[in-house]
């Protein structure tokens, strides 16, 4: 009788321990599931979307020197790059670079200053690119012909490194890269068309 009465509290204690362990395991499983879902949705960084917002061409004045034929041209292209941050947190970017290409040849480059793009917002990053005459030398005739024809086909290759921070301590690094091919109208200074391809290293 005594042994039976002692075994009942022991069995009850073991049952309570099992229920407690089962409850803790269930809560831990739910917590892990929630964390995984958040990591795959809310905390998953999204690549920024880049496009050319506007462009202005300055200094279109070729100079020809004689008796030795020497064509000199000084052209500055002011480009406004629009970067859309699709993340739920701000995107803090560092120093970036943008290259200007003409018919597959790099003819200019510029630096992009650091900045902060708010969550789910867009920012305009101004860039000033000076076309380098020596790099245009091989395509100078075609370049002047395009200017006279009223349309200039150019390409920008942009790289912007940065990071997003979730909950104040979860940091995700992003390197946004874009390749924009656009047709620029002369002298109306309008972008006739553009195709931008974006990708990011997450």
TrEMBL record:
<dbReference type="InterPro" id="IPR055301">
    <property type="entry name" value="Lea14-like_2"/>
</dbReference>
<dbReference type="Pfam" id="PF03168">
    <property type="entry name" value="LEA_2"/>
</dbReference>
<feature type="transmembrane region" description="Helical">
    <location>
        <begin position="24"/>
        <end position="43"/>
    </location>
</feature>
<keyword id="KW-1133">Transmembrane helix</keyword>
<feature type="domain" description="Late embryogenesis abundant protein LEA-2 subgroup">
    <location>
        <begin position="81"/>
        <end position="174"/>
    </location>
</feature>
<keyword id="KW-0812">Transmembrane</keyword>
<keyword id="KW-0472">Membrane</keyword>
<protein>
    <recommendedName>
        <fullName>Late embryogenesis abundant protein LEA-2 subgroup domain-containing protein</fullName>
    </recommendedName>
</protein>
<dbReference type="InterPro" id="IPR004864">
    <property type="entry name" value="LEA_2"/>
</dbReference>
